[in-house]
Amino acid sequence: MNVAPESAATVIAFSEFFGDLFMNALKMIIVPLIVASIISGVMHLGSEKGVGRIGFKTLLYYTFTGAVAVCIGLLVVNIIGPGRVDAEVAQAMLGSASETATNQGLMDKVAGKGSEDILGVFLRMFPSNVVSAASNNGQLLGVITFSILFGIFINRLTPEFQTVQRQFWDSTQEVMLKLTDFIIKFAPIGVFGLVTPVLFNAPFAELIGAIAAFFFTVLIALALHMFLALGLTLKFVGKVNPITHFREMMPVLLTAFSTSSSSATLPLTIDTVEERSGISKKTCSFTLPLGATVNMDGTALYECVVVIFIAQLYASVSGVSLELSQQFLVVLLALTTSIGVAGIPSASLVAIAVILPAVGLPVEAIGVVWVTDRILDMCRTSVNVFSDTVGAVVIGRSEGETPYTMNANIEPRS
Q1: Per-residue pLDDT tens digits for 288-327
Q2: Lower Cβ count inside 10 Å, N or C end of the chain?
Q3: How far, in Å, are 2, 10, 19 from residue 22 at the CA level?
Q4: Strands annotated E in 89-174
Q5: Residues 227, 233, 238, 240: what is their CA dihedral angle, to the nearest 10 degrees?
Q6: Is the pLDDT of residue 61 over 90?
Q7: What is the pTM assigned to this prediction?
Q8: How far apart are alpha carbons 39 and 147 in whole angstroms?
């Protein structure tokens, strides 16, 4: 941009203040949000009675489709390589985050690590001091593991203690959701603060080209998962016509796209799946609310693409790329953090802030992709919700129901 140096310095300083303020607020809520969300979700999964078989099938489906989504994202972003740009462009896009990485030696953590470090990933799942791990963003994998175990063992308590724990964690999660929603409302100001210095320093044409390449990489990966992976799942596992299901779920997809919230779409999702596909109320009332919280295929895919894209930018500057162990850690964290992400707009940014430090990258690098986040949030929410509806059909079929037939509304096997 052609701006006087004095004016540019003032604008950049002003922008960086608001960008740093927003980033600090985002970092502040990471640990309590992840802990409260995961513990609350896990303890309720274990509290369901009489749904052992259907619960196991549902969780198996969600885990499988989530893993497929992340792998598709990993494959597409590595093939297209939207972050493989000139060093000058990458340096300008990363801005102060690049300096942070240099000063802290974060890329040294990535360099020289190979497939043997995968075992180190599992060791970091069980930190010797979980409080110390919580204060170190790079060790949040241990916090996630602790939260999952804590939620599981709440269900081993006596009924009166279970009630106390559930009330505490449910109320804590609700507070964190409201606080997260409040902070996310300031995202436009935060984006302005993070992106403005980049616009002053980066060659504009190359900058737009790199962001566009990232944008279409995410869209291609989401489309492959939605139409290919989930379509094949409908065809061969659910034994229904994917085109028919897609057409019948169109009102749900449009609502999810416009609201960017799986939770806000849930009432319509339940009603539409039950009425149009013929899946029983029992199956819908269990799989769909659970899916709105746990099943985040599009979110997990997006998190993976963002982290690899940012890593590619750093590789363009430093020549150091993520090894197999780091990419494996990205896949693992994308799956686990997507479960703990709240069903509110842009909440996946919190999960990305968890993954980046875990692979040796500064959280400030998120600013590179925030320009496109709102539109991509709408797209990935649609994928999340569509996967929920596919899950209901697949689980219903496995329970003896016959979706999209005249006698579809039959009770599942007891």
Answers
A1: 887 887 788 999 999 999 999 998 988 888 777 777 778 8
A2: C
A3: 27, 19, 5
A4: none
A5: 30
A6: yes
A7: 0.81
A8: 5
149 falls within a domain = yes
411 lies in some domain:
no
Instruction: Encode 377-386: b = buried (16+ Cβ within 10 Å), e = exposed.
Output: bbbbbbbbbb
Distance of alpha carbon 303 from alpha carbon 281, whole angstroms:
33
Closest CA to 229 of 56, 70, 399: 70
| Residue 360: partners with Cβ closer than 8 Å, 6 or more residues away | 101, 106, 107, 108, 109, 110, 138, 326
Domain count for the chain, please give it.
1
For 261, which DSSP code? -
Whole-number CA gyration radius for the chain: 22
**Structural domain includes residue 226:** yes
Q: pLDDT per residue over 104-117, tens digit each?
A: 444 454 444 444 45
Q: Quick check: is 298 in a domain?
A: yes
- The residue range of the domain holding 173 is 5-398
Q: Name the most confidently modeled range: 141-150, 234-243, 400-409.
A: 234-243
CB 359 within 8 A of CB 121: no
Which range among 6-10, 260-264, 324-328, 405-409 shows the weakest confidence by mean pLDDT? 405-409
Cα–Cα distance measured from residue 61 to residue 236, given in angstroms and rounded to the nearest whole number: 14
CATH of the domain at 64: 1.10.3860
User: Which candidate, 214, 400, 385, places its Cα nearest to that of 304?
Assistant: 214
